Amino acid sequence: MQALLTEILDQVRPLIGQGKVADYIPALADVPANQLGIAVYSNDGELYCAGDAHTPFSVQSISKVFSLVQAIEHSGEDIWQRLGHEPSGQPFNSLVQLEFERGKPRNPFINAGALVICDINQSRFAAPVLSMRDFVRRLAGNPQIVVDRRVAESEYQHRARNAAAAYLMQSFGNFHNDVEAVLRSYFSYCALRMSCADLARAFCFLANDGFCKHSGQQILSARQSKQVNAIMATSGLYDEAGNFAYRVGLPGKSGVGGGIIAVVPGQFSVCVWSPELNAAGNSLAGIKALELLSERIGWSVF
Amino acid sequence: MQALLTEILDQVRPLIGQGKVADYIPALADVPANQLGIAVYSNDGELYCAGDAHTPFSVQSISKVFSLVQAIEHSGEDIWQRLGHEPSGQPFNSLVQLEFERGKPRNPFINAGALVICDINQSRFAAPVLSMRDFVRRLAGNPQIVVDRRVAESEYQHRARNAAAAYLMQSFGNFHNDVEAVLRSYFSYCALRMSCADLARAFCFLANDGFCKHSGQQILSARQSKQVNAIMATSGLYDEAGNFAYRVGLPGKSGVGGGIIAVVPGQFSVCVWSPELNAAGNSLAGIKALELLSERIGWSVF
Amino acid sequence: MQALLTEILDQVRPLIGQGKVADYIPALADVPANQLGIAVYSNDGELYCAGDAHTPFSVQSISKVFSLVQAIEHSGEDIWQRLGHEPSGQPFNSLVQLEFERGKPRNPFINAGALVICDINQSRFAAPVLSMRDFVRRLAGNPQIVVDRRVAESEYQHRARNAAAAYLMQSFGNFHNDVEAVLRSYFSYCALRMSCADLARAFCFLANDGFCKHSGQQILSARQSKQVNAIMATSGLYDEAGNFAYRVGLPGKSGVGGGIIAVVPGQFSVCVWSPELNAAGNSLAGIKALELLSERIGWSVF
Amino acid sequence: MQALLTEILDQVRPLIGQGKVADYIPALADVPANQLGIAVYSNDGELYCAGDAHTPFSVQSISKVFSLVQAIEHSGEDIWQRLGHEPSGQPFNSLVQLEFERGKPRNPFINAGALVICDINQSRFAAPVLSMRDFVRRLAGNPQIVVDRRVAESEYQHRARNAAAAYLMQSFGNFHNDVEAVLRSYFSYCALRMSCADLARAFCFLANDGFCKHSGQQILSARQSKQVNAIMATSGLYDEAGNFAYRVGLPGKSGVGGGIIAVVPGQFSVCVWSPELNAAGNSLAGIKALELLSERIGWSVF
């Protein structure tokens, strides 16, 4: 596996230079484009790494999975009163569908849906950001994981589109806490800094029927774990969810920091990272690396 | 398996009466609502049946998978110049997205996409309907399969919405043959009459890396077979694709005749049939039966 | 007036070369771009002409006013069961709003609305095209007016977008006659060939409370005449209706043949013609000429 | 005129009870529904009143005309870089079009457009609300006019939809000041309390080529005055602008407080008030009263 990962990174490295690092906030635009890492964590607890697998980066929308898992943990099926689990067919930050569907977001992985999930968690936790940070540290088995305050603040300064979504939902009665406070939490989650190794470990429970071996905790029931994977499979990669299923065939979730996590149910969790994005906002080299892995070792769930 | 299927049908039978048989054409409205059947076909060639598994019904949109497979067989990746493989997030017959995206349908399982696929096949075959019928007979191993001319004609009489989609695509240069002729073919495919047993057999190649054991033919490559499954997983059940993944966790395709086929990669193909539909246009008892099967024997791909 | 018209044409002539002749059908693309004419017809029966005011051209969408007037004449307020009289805020040939509003077009001057009006007239007249031609001849006082068969046929060959609109309305039950037959009539109306002088005369009744002095006929009631002007004022120039009101301040209707008619209630009807169009599909020099006229002799209704 | 106004109020009074007082904020829901007033102000300075013409009410969206006039006064044509003057064809508070058109509102009379105008004025004035109040006092010749702080505060508490619009525009770079500050100003303008008599007087300059006789000031140029009227004619009554032109035939602007102002260019300004609204959010009895006036004394501009 180790050799394979190294080989795959070598194969996709030439793609660097063909994508574009996210630049909507300065703190992300600064990230050196030539970084590339991958980590695979097996259900029996082996970690395989290659490239910059131990360099922390901004997880961004990958945090939407953590938020969803936290919400399912404490609120269960009730959350589906407030959002759906259908693919949206619209850009991740579009308000069009949200207005037509009267403030109920399509799924937890578009921004509006993630904001509702944060609103749910905000109602639940006295200190939502700390709760999340500790939850993620526990999942990853790494007490060093932190929120990058500079990134969170910078995102907050550029909050306009997300604020619009939150206020639109509030106008339909589907937002319960103070908008600004929830946005602060939301951007803090996005600003978590984790490495490929951290993320592969943190998501291993989704490959293992909800059980996190290294912490010894049942994070979700087997059924809930499958459900989260199902939502990732249909809605995890923005406008490119269909293409990711077509090319890679795994449940996955991407972030504009250039990370992508994917799950091979029953076997592995994997995280790949390369900061340059394709036109759909997903890591260009990252998707290619996962496609090669899927082809080479038959990982597709289909 | 046999016993399990019977048990599951017994469990879902109480749902009959809670849905609504498709009634947009008289020929479908006539179908007795209390029919219920299921067939499972294993990769090693065993067929398990329960209920009305041998009663032929109108396959309707399930035929969109046959058309897609035919198109991939002879035109390969080229077809993706003309349509996408992303979920649409819109009703199956909506023209809104089609206009915004300049006549390029999102995927082959919404009506517009299926019409483009039929247009591609129409350019290829001298007698497209016969070619399709023979292809399906071969896949199902049943030379008795026919197109129900009365249903096809009735659908043609009610073609307005599909005609609008086809002309809209023509206005964008994405429709090459005579609209009326392609619509005739399209409705003929929808009007194929097949039983659960026929359909389970016909789709076994998608559970078997593209190989159809009983005919001894490699219908698609392993990779293509996974790709078709991926498209079914993200877009196979209209507006309910996400929910189907969430509840059942299998690639599948439904039709308004009340049939649903699903694929357990590496193991089984399955077809369930009950004519009453839910609000999203999918068989009410059918989805429930697949959900129970998925729970009972851990069929979810996730 | 004569001198003023000549002066205004001289002022706008330099715009020729900055627009684009409609080229979606060959028969229109052929029209020499350097033609420019204007005709003003006063309520006391004086005709003032300048430039190519007597050269016939393809009236195109200006015919939508004739169709509407015919429909009001024989069906009165009933027509508003089937379409609205609100501005659409969408391109003239968009299907998006039509689908959202379940097949009821916003107004009679977008294509879908004009098609419904033609459908209404089709139900009424045994020979709709002849009836229309004779109606227009009578209004213009010119028995030489003809339908250009070559243009009508060419438009029919490129009917896809309009066919899509008609079938979409049929799918909502808002289209009663054979789609192809109504499209034939519709394109025949668009293909009427009339000069500026013909059109200024033909529309004089709208400046005169519904009364056509030269034919001695009350075409519409005073109230109906105002209503038609009101619809032209809010919806007569496609996406540019607001801008036309802002710059010119008159009820008007344009066609892609480069003609624009406008009405100065109580005083004049006017027609200007220059084949080159602006980005919104309205005659570039034509709008400028009307703006100058409006400024110079205070014609704005506002 | 006096007698006519009284007669018309008697004719429309039976409509009271068939509409619905705006109730999205408590401060408006409290207004007694059975009030009804009208005031007509002639270009030669005569004021004709009937009913509750001297009772102040919440002008709400009628203030959008004041804001627009203020913006034109000091910023001229430049404002059209930031918004259009086309009818929108969408509900007054919709974000759909705003997103498609990248944050540039269609016109100054939908909420998004009025917010941009307020943003422009906010950049210009040190104390925007005081400037507006004084401007309105001067126009109406009434130094008693005040902002109802309770209404403004209540609207601010229910700002979610307008906040969403403002943030969405900010995300496209079309909002320059602090969103919350501009919303405060915007709601203060809406909360101006004026009577029919105040409003008829305040808008007389639009009937008089921009000149306000009682203050002796040229508020706008004649051309600008016509332009404002043109925008009211195509976009002044929300989704019902076309219907208002069709039935009444005058430039006008309504507010959810139940007021409607209209302009008879060259002759009169008029204000009618009745708190109950129709389904489109316009005063039910108010529109009917204006329709009767228009019919009875031939006021339509068409």
Automatic annotation (TrEMBL), chains A, B, C, D:
UniProt keyword Acetylation present: yes
Record keywords, A-Z: Acetylation, Hydrolase
EC number(s) stated in the UniProt entry for this protein: 3.5.1.2
EC category: hydrolase
One Pfam family recorded for the sequence: Glutaminase
Binding site for substrate: 61, 111, 155, 162, 186, 238, 256
This protein's record includes keyword Transmembrane helix: no
Catalyzed reaction equations: L-glutamine + H2O = L-glutamate + NH4(+)
NCBIfam families (UniProt xref): Gln_ase, PRK00971.1-1, PRK00971.1-2
Family affiliation: Belongs to the glutaminase family.
Subunit comment: Homotetramer.
Protein's recorded name: Glutaminase
Organism encoding this protein: Pseudomonas cuatrocienegasensis
Gene: glsA
